[in-house]
Amino acid sequence: MHKTFTGLLILLGLGLGQLATAQSAPSTDAPLRFSNAPTTVAAYDFRFSTPDDFYLQTLRDRYGLEAVAAKEQTTLGKVKALSLWVHNRLSHDGHTSTPKTDPMEILDHALLGKPVQCVEFGRVMAAVLTAMGMPARPLFLKAADADKRSSAGGHVLTEVWLDEFQKWAIVDSQWDVLPTLNGTPISAVELQHALAKDAPGLSGETSTDAKVRYYFRWLQPYLFYFDTPLDNRYGVKTMSTSLMLTPIGAKKLTMFQRTTKLHGMRYTNSTAVFYPNPLETHQAAEPPSLGQ
Description:
The chain has one domain (30-285). The protein contains 9 helices and 15 strands. It has helices at 2-24, 54-62, 65-69, 75-89, 103-111, 118-131, 188-196, 212-219, 271-274, and strands spanning 42-45, 47-48, 136-142, 154-162, 167-171, 178-181, 184-185, 202-205, 225-229, 231-232, 242-245, 255-256, 260-261, 265-268, 283-285. A hairpin with a 2-residue loop joins strand 6 and strand 7. It is globular. Keywords: Signal. This is Transglutaminase domain-containing protein. Residues 1-22 form the signal peptide.
């Protein structure tokens, strides 16, 4: 009887422990919490090329980017046209990697009929948008357990500064989807919140037959960690440092898919730091208690 009772207590303890672990596991099902405290101390230096830089002039002229967006009268129209262009120029294969990181080299690689992964879509789209006067950056999304997964730990798309809306917005040229909330383009963090709240005004602009609702369901688990390069210039030697936006209370992610160490990563909980206006200043400010 004593042994039976002890065994029941052990099983009960294990069950409660597993329940507590499940309840405390990070999830994107609820809106993630971030700081939006005013910035006071300059710490991170975001750098972007300008459209008149030689590299971007060459990209724009070689691929006729002005003609791609010539018929569009609105900022969103131009972004959509350029997204469709990248979508059609590149072919996706998540199992085939390429060492190329230069956008024009990636485009040349694609001309040979070779597929690329999501990261190449993100990088090419960022360069194309910047060449057309819209500062952009590749955005790396990572699941809450990205360090424990052996594969499918994240996704890469693009964030672009839309001066007309005075905000950052995401566009995914691999899927050709530009998420909007009540008709306004939104950032990755805003998308995470909208999905968690099942916001009725959430939709997506696309020029293809992309299934937007399916795309949102597929993307949602990756909307936990967000990181982007601090140096987004082209045709010059750039710094390899990145900035990761982490939810309040979440651990700092230092490993990706079990084996890839995240070198040169800086961390912040502040959306004000992660989302500066790139046309006002290249400096992102970080309260001393948050900077790492």
